[in-house]
Each structure stands twice: as C-alpha cells, then as structure tokens.
Amino acid sequence: MRDVSGLVARFPRERTWLLPALEEVQRAEHWLSPEALEAVAAHLRVPRSEVWGVASHYPELRLSAPGRRLVRVCTGVACLAGGGRAILQAASCWPRAPSGSAPPPGRRRRTAR
User: Fold this and answer.
1) CA separation (Å) from 31 to 43, 82, 112?
2) What are phi and psi of 31, to 5 degrees?
3) Over the stretch 77-97, which tens digit does the pLDDT of each residue have?
4) What percentage of the chain exceeds 90 in pLDDT?
5) pLDDT digit string (tens) for 47-76?
6) Which residues pair with 71 in a beta bridge?
7) At what angle do helices 18-29 and 48-57 cross, to 10 degrees?
8) With the CA atoms of 23, 25, 28 and 32 taken in that order, what torsion angle do they form, in degrees rounded to the nearest 10?
C-alpha cells in the first residue's frame, strides 16, 4: 500500500470533503485501510471516529481488502421479486465464506446489495 497523503492533499481541509476524499482513496487503493482512514482524518482535521462512522455507513466503501474477484448480488425489492434471493443462495455455495466476509487473499468476495 502506498502513502495516501498525496491523494488527500488536494482536498481542502474541511469536513465537507470527507466523503469525496474517502472515495478518492478507495478509487486508488481499492479499499480503505486503517492507515488510509487515519491519513484522511489527519488531513481534514476530522475526528477518527467520524471518519470511521462515514466509511462504515456507506456500503460502497470497503473496509477490508477485496479479493481477486468480487461477486455482487442485488437484494433490493425489485431484484428479490426477480429471483435475487435464489441467485444469492446459489452464489453462497461457491466460496465457503459468509456474505460480506473477507476471503483469503486472492480469493473471491461476495456481497449482497
């Protein structure tokens, strides 16, 4: 992992830039490591607890390293009506890890949306 200080340096030191800064770091690193969250908090002068709260609130933001493959199954109302639950059940047979868990490095990761 590279130093993310350069990525967040272009953002003004204001709380309103927290989500864009987290998105930028994730775009570059593919996930938000504890060190990256710390760097964002330090640059924006926002409490670490607030950075963690925002990062853990949005399902689009990943707090664990992704596997080599990411399998997403829609579980919204329209998707469930169209058979999303059956697809999720079928997908749960592949890697023996529960939905949303971090697999061993290089393996698939499955998430429900």
Assistant:
1) 18, 30, 17
2) -170, 170
3) 888 888 888 888 887 776 555
4) 49
5) 999 999 999 999 899 998 887 777 777 878
6) 110
7) 70
8) -100
Give the whole-angstrom CA distance, residue 110 versus residue 89. Answer: 11
**Is pLDDT of 102 > 90?**
no
| Long-range contacts, stretch 5-14, CB < 8 angstroms, 24+ apart | 5/39, 5/43, 8/39, 8/40, 8/43, 8/44, 9/43, 11/43, 11/44, 13/43, 13/44, 13/45, 14/44
Cα angle, residue 99 at apex, residues 60 and 70 outer, rounded to 5°: 55
CB atoms within 10 A of CB 103: 18
Report the SS3 class of residue 4: coil
Are the CB atoms for 25 and 4 separated by under 8 Å? Answer: yes
The pair phi, psi for residue 71, each rounded to 5°, is -110, 120
Q: At what angle do helices 48-57 and 34-44 cross, to 10 degrees?
A: 120
